Amino acid sequence: MDARAPVRKGSPISFWHSQLDPSPPSRPALPGPRDADVCIVGAGYTGLWTAYELRRADPSLDVVVLEAQTAGFGASGRNGGWVVGHLAGKRAQWARRGGREAVVALERAVRKTVDEVGRVVDAEGIDCDYVKGGSLSVAQSDLELRRLERVVAEDREWGWTPQDTALLDATATAARVAVAGARGAIFTPHCARVQPAKLARGLAVAAERAGAVIHEHTPVTGSEPGRAHTPFGIVRARHVVRATEGYSARLDGHRRALLPMNSAMIVTEPLDAGVWKQIGWAGAETLYDARHRYVYLQRTADGRVAIGGRGVPYRFGSATDREGPVPARTVAELRTRLGELFPALRGAP
Predict the structure, then answer these.
(1) How far apart are CA 287 and CA 134, in angstroms?
(2) Which carries the bigger pLDDT value, residue 193 or residue 313?
(3) What span, in angstroms and rounded, lies between the C-alpha atoms of 282 and 184?
(4) Residues 198, 122, 284: CA angle, nearest 5 degrees
């Protein structure tokens, strides 16, 4: 959504947000110009984790977070709910920039982060349905299975063992989840499921408890070294952290710095025990298929299936106005794919 536009009262942000306490803590807007040691722009995961960790590292730091809407409003509160220990992009490209050892070290750190998130969730009492059940990538055709075999072969070339990524045959796959016609799957333990909006809200509270200050409804129109500009005044800080991710296109001078990419999600009503007996999926692994145009799924804590993908990945002009209903065509495509994966869910509400 345009970071400078208000949300209509009563309009749903997402299904995930609908499960939150309807009376969130009230955080006032920035009252006027101020100074700080660190000014963080954006109260999503990047901004909130930064604030939380800085205050833990040095409680004397004055850390202020500026958020255009509310904490977790953007992608952090509206995603597939995967805490995934996977390095984005191709390893060979990263290696050309920093060398092979750096890539291995980075990927090792990313994988450790899954447990670190779980540790913080436990230590801070964040109720976000965190379950480290690992992740499955399932093949329904021989072509998809060969694609997974290449992924595992590359992992071995980079030093990762069967304890990191294991290739399962059809029988072992079915023992975990009954995807129709599954030929095999990759399993990795380096992933956890969460309810993303609950995690974002809980992390905001933890950051405040650590001593950070969060100002909501405070859009930042531009930032530069040492300054963040808002309609309420300038925040001057030794360090300004731009944690706006896909919303960066709305900041002055950053229209083409990052391209916001979108996908859409739908979620079933809670499924009864008989349906779950057919599906299996007792381990709450995150799940995606091995197609190029893939979908991603999770089993929610209250017994639903949430599935995402398809839709319009890029909107003209780097637009981020994606509040409101998912387009009917996208809903139909996701429902069709859900039924292809789990025939028992054809027609599920």
Answers:
(1) 9
(2) 193
(3) 18
(4) 65
For the chain, give percent helix, strand, coil, nearest 5. Answer: 35, 20, 45
In this predicted structure, what is the pLDDT of residue 183?
98
Residue type, 239: H
Q: How far is residue 99's CA from residue 89's CA, in Å, rounded to a whole number?
A: 15
Query: To which residue do tokens 């690992």 refer?
Result: 134
d(CA 193, CA 300): 8
pLDDT band at 11 (very low <50, low <70, confident <90, very high): low
Q: What is the C-alpha R_g of the chain?
A: 21
Q: What number of residues does the chain have?
A: 349
Tokens of 151: 């992924």
Round to whole Å and give the CA distance between 189 and 154: 17
CA dihedral 42, 4, 258, 190 (to 10 degrees): 40
Residues contacting residue 220 through CB under 8 Å, at least 6 positions apart: 3, 41, 66, 68, 228, 229, 230, 244, 251
Cα 305 versus chain centre, distance: 17
d(CA 195, CA 129): 6
- Return the higher-pLDDT residue of 2 and 326: 326
Which pLDDT tens digit goes with each residue over 247-269? Answer: 888 777 777 778 888 889 999 99
Tokens of 340: 């292809």
∠ Cα 173 177 179 (to 5°): 85
Distance of alpha carbon 175 from its chain centroid, rounded? 27
Question: Are the C-beta atoms of 7 and 69 separated by less than 8 Å?
Answer: yes
Q: 339 exposed, middle or buried (CB, 10 Å; 0-12, 13-18, 19+)?
A: middle
Beta pairing partners, 339? none
Other CB atoms within a 10 A radius of the CB of residue 8 amount to 9
Token look-up 């230590």 returns 123
pTM above 0.85, yes or no: yes
Among the residue ranges 115-119, 120-124, 224-228, 317-321, the one predicted with the least confidence is: 317-321
